[in-house]
Design a protein that fits this description.
Layout lengths: L2 E3 L6 E3 L2 E3 L12 H13 L4 E5 L6 H10 L8 E6 L1 E3 L5 E4 L3 H15 L6 E4 L8 H12 L12
Parallel strand pairs: 3-4, 4-5, 5-8
Antiparallel strand pairs: 1-2, 6-7
Helix pairs in contact: 1-2
Length: 156
C-alpha cells in the first residue's frame, strides 16, 4: 500500500483511508458485524487511516471502531476524529461548539468511547464562527502538552 506523510512532520498513513461515517449513521441502517468486517478487511489490506467523528451515530461510530480494533495492535491504525458538531436527540444538526471547555469535554468522551489513551489526528468538523480560531488552536496545542501523568491525549 502506498503511503503519504501528512504535513511536514505529521503521521505517515496509507494513501487510501477508510471513512466510517456511514457505518453508524446518515446513510440509512448499518450492519455492525459487516462494518467491523469492513474495518478488519481494510486494516488487513494495509489501510491505516481510519476517519470518524464524535457525532457520527451520536458516539456509536467511535465505539464501533473500538470494537473493531479490539485484539489488534493500536499502533497499526491512525485514528482521525472530527469534533464540534452538535446534534439533538433525533440526530438533527443543531450547531457547533468549539469553545475550549467543549473541545476538552469532547476529547474526554472520545477517548472513553474509543478505549484508547490518544487519538492521532483531532480536528474541528467546521471552522468556528463564534470562537476565535486562535482559541481553538491554542486549546488543541494545550492538549498536545503532556499532562501531569506524562502523557498527552492527542497526536504524539
Amino acid at each position: 500500500m502506498d503511503t503519504r506523510t501528512l504535513g511536514s512532520n505529521g503521521p505517515t498513513v496509507s494513501a487510501l483511508g477508510l471513512g466510517l461515517m456511514g457505518m453508524s449513521d446518515l446513510y440509512g441502517p448499518a450492519d455492525e458485524a459487516e462494518s467491523i468486517a469492513t474495518i478488519h478487511a481494510a486494516l488487513d489490506a494495509g489501510v491505516t487511516l481510519l476517519d470518524t467523528g464524535d457525532f457520527y451515530g451520536m458516539g456509536h461510530n467511535e465505539m464501533l471502531l473500538r470494537d473493531a480494533l479490539r485484539g489488534r495492535n493500536r499502533d497499526n491504525a491512525v485514528i482521525s476524529v472530527k469534533f464540534g458538531a452538535l446534534r439533538d436527540v433525533d440526530g438533527n444538526w443543531i450547531g457547533h461548539d468549539l469553545r475550549p471547555v467543549a473541545i476538552k469535554n469532547f476529547l474526554a468522551y472520545t477517548l472513553r468511547r474509543l478505549g484508547t489513551d490518544h487519538v492521532d489526528i483531532y480536528r474541528p468538523a467546521r471552522l468556528p464562527s463564534d470562537v476565535p480560531v486562535e482559541d481553538v488552536m491554542g486549546t488543541l496545542a494545550d492538549l498536545l502538552r503532556p499532562a501531569t501523568s506524562g502523557t498527552s491525549a492527542c497526536p504524539r
